[in-house]
Structure formats: structure tokens, C-alpha cells
Amino acid sequence: MGLLDALFRSNEILGIAEETLEFTIESAEATHPNEYMGMLRGTEASRLGLDRDGLVITDVLVIPGTESNSVSATVRTSQVPNDVKSLGSVHSHPNGVLRPSSADLETFTRGSVHIIIGAPYRRTDWQAFDSEGHPTTLPVIDVELPDTDDFFDFTQADIDEELRRDRR
Q1: Tens-place pLDDT, residues 9-52
Q2: Would you call 35 a catalytic residue per the annotation?
Q3: By CB neighbour count within 10 A (0-12 exposed, 13-18 middle, 19+ buried), where does 166 fall?
Q4: pLDDT tens by residue, 65-80
Q5: First CA to last CA distance, the chain
Q6: Active-site residue among 18, 26, 35, 44?
Q7: Distance from C-alpha of 100 to C-alpha of 120, rounded to nearest angstrom
């Protein structure tokens, strides 16, 4: 997918892949008692065999240098790829509270969907939020995930073009 294709695709988020949700819950539990944090990325539904326009959350990108403890996770924003596939974030609350804190709301500015996973990390211990921190519905979709080789399917030219646009 080229940059122009990405710009003209449907931005509607249809849901999260079952396997991706399972990965985030397992990762949050493995990180306990510290918070877990990652950035959400999507794949066009048509590439997953769905007959709909829109995106399905299929990937979680853990940012190098992310620091976490039992009450917070901090991402080095300079390490976050300026990527047209970024859809939002996921992080855990080891205390089990499934609502965003004021610090969480500050991180909700990048992307349109944000997931909080809470202890004890069961399949039902998560909630999706919009960028303003309001609970939202995020369907879980059973699809086969794309090959990992497609994860970084942007080129240096795509990055350069996006940087030029951001300077305007």
C-alpha cells in the first residue's frame, strides 16, 4: 500500500482482531504489576477477507524506550513512527480500573481508539475509548492476521512525503 492509497482509504475502525486482543491481554498480564503500553495499527478489512471498507486493528507496536511502573507507562514520543496506519493506543491498569486517568487523556490525542486493559486480565477486563475518553464499542472480529512481513510496508519515500506534509 502506498501513501496515496493510505490517504484515500476508509478510516472507519471496524473492530479489533481476536488474536490481537488476546495478545494485548496476555502482554498486560505478563507486565503486571507494571503498566503495559503499545500503539495500535490497522489493516484494511478487504486484505483480511472481509467484504467491507474500513480498518481492523491487527497490530500492537511496542515503542522502544517505553518506561513503566505500577501506576504509569511513558512512551518516548520521538520513537513513535509517524505512520499512516496508527489508530490509537493500548495500555493496562494493574489496579483494574477501566476508565482513563487525566494522564491517559493526554496520550489519547494520537489516534481515534484507545484500549485500557485491567487486572485480573480476563477476556472481559478491557474497555475501548474515543480520543476524548468516552467509552466506545469496539467489536472483536475473528480474522486471520496478515503475514508479519507486511507490518512495515511503508518506504522512506512515504516517510519523507509525510514529513513534508507536516511542515506545511
Answers
A1: 457 999 999 999 999 999 999 999 998 988 899 999 999 999 99
A2: yes
A3: exposed
A4: 556 545 555 665 554 5
A5: 24
A6: 35
A7: 17
